[in-house]
Amino acid sequence: MRYALIGCGRISPNHIGAAKQNGLEIAALCDLVPEAAKALAEQFSLEGVPVYTDYREMISAQKPELVAIATESGKHAAIALDCIARGCNVIIEKPIALSMADADAIIEAAGKYGVTVCANHQNRFNRSVQLIREALEAGRFGKLSHGAAHVRWNRGKGYYDQAPWRGTWEQDGGCLMNQCIHNIDLLRWMMGDEVEEVTAYTDRLLHPYLEAEDLGMAMVKFRNGSYGLIEGTTNVYGKNLEETLYLFGEKGMAKAAGASVNTIEEWRFADGLDDPEEVKKRFSENPPNVYGFGHAPLYADVVDAIRTGRKPLVDAEAGKRALELVLAIYLSAKEHRAVKLPLGNVATTDFSGRFDG
Fold first, then answer.
1. Crossing angle between the packed helical segments 12-21 and 295-308, to the nearest 10 degrees
2. In principle, which of 213, 288, 325, 347 could form an S-S bond with 202, CB 3.0–4.6 Å?
3. How far apart are CA 81 and CA 109, in angstroms?
4. Does residue 235 contact residue 111 with C-beta atoms inside 8 Å?
């Protein structure tokens, strides 16, 4: 399967590594800064792989079957729609878009042109997360009470100086949209997906050079009667602390933690089907960074979905749901009220100037 990557920045090695692990034919790389694409090609010994600065030209010349989009967030939707209209299956880095309208347009276009679209929420494929999901689907938790998602990370000025689009409303959003959306996706997925309403606070406390938030806290009421707590921040002193996901039910509870929910730290179930200490030992990965090991299995799932015609595990609808929850948090915080879902046509740009003055 011919594959191409658009965007050769911070996350691009994970994409190329996953493509190689899945035996894809890497047909081309594209970046507005050709030196970035050339450096990536050298890193992975991709001799002879052409480099482009115009993704439309690349698609026309190389005709890839699968394209991954890893540019700045604000460009995801427009590039995805172009690729879909040209018959390409796509993997879109999170978030899938920055507006509900764009997310809907991607879903509609995928159906119109008959292509597979995957939102790159790779943490769903963590072994720890898969284990929790299996227990949930088997009914081991019983009735769910609540869940909690915490992302307690550090991002300093140097990180934002690397890419001026970060932390802007037009091209990114704040810590909830950029750093925390993976765990927000996991919480919504685990708690039944259907959200009734959201109440939230956001603020910009320690990053005055950003437009968007560096702290967000929210309570989510799910339609199945359970609740969710979300805490996301890039204000932790010194270095990243943790990313954790908790699920609490009448017959069990679980906690995934570590740098990026890659370990099982608590595992308690009334059924006694497994040894909690053994589970904690077996499901304890230590990835080299917060991106974890999920890209390769996500790619494997997408390739299989394309070949068999089924939906990928993380389809465009899933990407839309994660986006919707973040935008609902933003809207609740701005308007100081509970926000009902489904959400209307909300976009990150609706919050421009939120923390000015």
1. 50
2. 213
3. 7
4. no
Q: How many CB atoms lie within 10 A of CB 349?
A: 14
Q: State the pLDDT at residue 210.
A: 98
Q: Which residue is it, tokens 């690729």?
A: 83
Query: From CA 200, how far away is CA 184, in angstroms rounded?
Result: 13
Residue 209: band (very low, low, confident or very high) from pLDDT cuts 50, 70, 90: very high
Which two tokens mark 346?
């909300």
**Domains of the chain, CATH where assigned:** 2-123+295-314 (3.40.50.720), 124-286+320-351 (3.30.360.10)
Q: Write b or e for each residue in 297-321: b if 16 or more Cβ atoms lie within 10 A of its Cβ, otherwise e.
A: bbbebbbebbeeeeebbbbbbbbbb
Q: How far apart are CA 80 and CA 102, in angstroms?
A: 10
User: In terms of DSSP H, where are the helices of the chain?
Assistant: 12-21, 34-43, 55-62, 76-85, 100-113, 127-137, 157-162, 175-178, 181-190, 276-282, 295-308, 316-335
